[in-house]
Amino acid sequence: MKIWKLKPSLPRGSYLFRFIAANTVVFVLCLFILAAVNYTFTNMISEKQISEAHQRLLHQTDASIDNLYERVFQIGEQLLSDKDVIKGLYSTGLDPGDSLSLDRKLRDVINANDFVNSVYLYNGTTKRFIHSLQQDVDIASIDPEASGLVQARNNLGKMIFLPHKQEYTYNGKRYENRILSLIFTETDAKSDYAIFINLKLTSLQELFDEMGQSSDSSFMIADKNGVVIARSDQPDAFLDSSASQSFVEKVIQSGTLSDSFVDATNGSKSLLTYIYNDKLEWYLANATRYAYLTKDSFILQRNIVVVSLLVLLVCLIATFFMNRKIYGPISNVIRMVKGAAPVQSPPDNADDAEYLSGVFKSLIGKVSSLEDTSSEDRKRLKEGLLKDLLMGQGTMEDRHDFPQLLERHGIRFGTHPLRVFALVLEGSDRSAEEQGERLKLVREAVFELALRVFHEFEAIEKVDTGYHSFVLIMSDLPEHAPGAIMNTFMQQVERMLGIHMKIGIGCRAETLQGLPGSMASAKEALSYEFIWPDLCLYDYDTINNRNNPQPFRYPARLERTLFDAIKLNDETSVRRILRDWFEELANNSVADIRGALLQSAFRIENEFRGLADFTTLLASYDKHTLEDVVSIFPRLDEVESFYGELVNHIIAELRNDRHRDASGLVNQACDYIGQHYTQSDLSADSVAAHLGITAPYFSKLFNENLGVSFTHYVTGLRMKEAENLLLATNLNVKEIGERIGFVNSSYFITVFKKNCGSSPNQYRQMKRKSS
User: Fold this and answer.
1) Which end of the chain is more exposed for a tag (fewer CB within 10 A), N or C?
2) Given this model, what pLDDT does residue 429 score?
């Protein structure tokens, strides 16, 4: 009896091997057909979801742009209602007082609105610009399009943002500003008198940052002619018609206000979503690479692979019990798979099993890779929903099924109130790309530790907000104090990971709709690091109770006292006043403090511009204005230290200017007074200005050298001249008073009587009788 034995390896030409090869080919073909069907179905779902998500983002950004437009419109209306601004707009010339007042009002607009670049007043009759730029420049040289924009605005018949460039050289450095101008006229009719409010283009780029940056997705704003105004992936593509892709032309030609379609951009297939803003005549568009959409869930593909493998295994086992001769024709299939010609009597070769093993390993590796990519994609989509939730940009209102959408992505917050915690890892370089992967691992480790520390909470979710920061959303149980819980958590992180953190604790959110408020309050609480840098926990509720915020009042009285002390070289008083000034500022909110610091820097530079040279001080900080220097400091104590350095610099400059001989200055003053004492407008200020020194210093110098005040000295000269005129002429008292600088005759009589013991007429009569 002949016994058939299985061999460790099968001959390449055996019937059993042919059957195995045929089953393998059929299995692989079926696997790919089913996977392709599922892939197409999943892709359609992803395309729809991504399109809807970007439609929401574009509508939210469009609403933000409309809000920005309204804010600028309100600024323009306020300027049009200001009589000083209108006077400056229509006047052919302004006196120094009106010019200074107008300059301050224009600068106040810049200081109060960080999105505003500059303000122009354009007089079409004189072709003259009044502007808010720091340096004294000709608008026509730095903004040659400005005059033409007035005509363009008149031709439009309505106000829209008009994009253009400022280009100029200042202090040997080249500047190029991309700006958007909103041009106001006093009436809707065409006018040659206009107010320009120029916005920074970065105000649009910041909106792109809020939508999130991705290498697979880009955002664009283009006008109705297809010219690019702003683009997230190409910040330099400004007013560049060639930078617009072919899809922009299709968007413009579509005639629809909002839609999406698939097209090729930059050589790759993309899903294109757009909306139209008819108020500004802008298209807001998003292009997402189609390859990114295919990275969706592959759970079904995995199941298909598992089932197919089981079916194949069953077929292979059954094959061992079947007659091998019936599978002869299938032997050619394996040859076709390997690309060889079929043969009738192949030699014995054991490499077929190794070949099939490699096929299966490659296939399983691809499926595993797809599963990993799908997991990352689900994680990104989940984090996108949470960011949507925290930003409060209309998602919950747009979709009534938003809670169910959160649950479908594994986000369950339960029934307890929620709270947002903003975490910042200390000692991390925010701009260091090379540290990105390391910081990502650190963030994940901190989050894993948070899951263990806060295990009793119903839910806890993490949202990355930067290299060095992220946000935790968790249930806020009533019996716990958030500060105590976070202290415990920070101790665990520091002990186990060696990481220092600062945490901003937001206010309590009773519902999902309250999470944007909790997020905003957590960020606001962290901003108080500017005032109290030594804290680790910044609790919004505690800060509000501690600060007891009052309506902000700029410490103008202390500021004026400080300026006077500086001009008198009183360093002791300067230090004391500066300390009191910062103590008074520290009792206000961070936003008010920063605004007050920028305002004070502007005032100091204006007050001492003609008396002190700030060039070397500014150069040491690589800045052009004191406002720029103040804005770089992250902490209030650093700003206070800089102000100490600043007043030392000013006092040193004033002293260097006073090295001249004091007696020489007094002699020059006496000569000047002797020539002008009969003028009614003679004052200590005018004499000090003639000498090039400050009025307080002049008064002090005059008193020390002559032993009399400036007023007594001038009065003495005038009285001596009055006596001469009374005796030598027949002029009446009023005419004599006017000749020696007294506009008011009654006041002249009073002063004369006080100095000479009698009235002018009595003096004249007595002297003439005695002679």
Assistant:
1) N
2) 44
